[in-house]
Amino acid sequence: MNTHQITVTSAIAVSMAAISIPSAIAATPAEFYKGKQVTFVVPAGSGGSYGRYSQLGKKALEKFMPGVTIVMQYMPGSGGIKATNYIANVAPRDGSVIYFMTAGAPQSQLFTPKRVKFDIEKIPFIGQFAPLPSIIAVRSDAPATSLEGAKKIELSLAASGFGSQQHQVPTLLNLLVGTKFKIIAGYKGSGRMFHAIEGNEVHGVLASTVSWAAIKPGWVEKKFVTPMFQTGKKAARGYEGVPLIEDVTTNKEHRQMLRAATSGSLMGRSVSAVPGFPKDKLKYLRDAFRKGMHDPEMLAFAKKTKLSVDYHSGEEMEALVREIMSTPKSVVDKLKKVLNIKG
Q1: Who is most buried in 14, 107, 210, 340, counting CB within 10 A?
Q2: How far apart are CA 51 and CA 214, in angstroms?
Q3: Read out DSSP for 127-153?
Q4: 41-56: pLDDT as tens digits
Q5: What pTM was computed for the model?
Q6: What confidence tens digit (pLDDT) does each residue in 291-313 have?
Q7: Are 175 and 157 spatial neighbours (Cβ–Cβ below 8 Å)?
């Protein structure tokens, strides 16, 4: 064999080796995650419902992704914008980072686009633990406990601040349907708001179903308070007879305003990947999360820690995001003006 033949033969051999090596070492998602550490970024501290749901997610994924270890990275700040910006721009794209999506991310992008550095529609979702509907409830001995009554009689509601849902939603109801809610802002945390109701400082508050169940269990069942409205697309479990907030009006634009203002309830507690996340690994994570949210052991843990589970798939969440982000600009602009949102 001459030198030229040897050179050509060697080149072919090297090329064949280069082609065959990737297929030989390519790992399936299950192989990739076995022995792997996955960082679960949480846009809040370890306390509260974000912290408790993240522990549920950790247990579920570790059970249905054999060999994986989920490590929490708590990243509070700027109402979740800090963490979402990190996920969209800095976090590794190799499948080693997942995210507890902040419920207000779509609203932040709609209302204050200059503050965000992410496109929520480019972030793939793994699944949702549960929507997070909120209930406006007032003391059962309040001077009014219905929509029609609230249009005639002033009712005081507690709120944390002017940018909070406790302030925004009643403000919108006052404008759109003529209720007479008086919002008293300045309460630090749900616990203090509930204490104010108990002490008859205020008549009621807008709070998530998780808060009602965890902070004052039994108030609804024992009729200490009467639910008036609830946010979300469908009635929450245990609140089937409570009107949806969008149904207080038939005006299309008003309904769009209420849907956009309460989009955090629809987003609820959900888990996402990062932009560019490998599709095969995304499917593997989605399957593991789905199994976890239907697993008796995980559901027992959720019940013990007072967490509602109402699973929705990653595909459903992405469709929901597209729906929220399709809110007409004219509606967003009116909403920002009514709620005095700058940005």
Answers
A1: 107
A2: 14
A3: EEEE---EEEEEETTSS--SHHHHHHS
A4: 999 888 778 899 999 9
A5: 0.85
A6: 999 999 999 999 998 888 999 99
A7: no
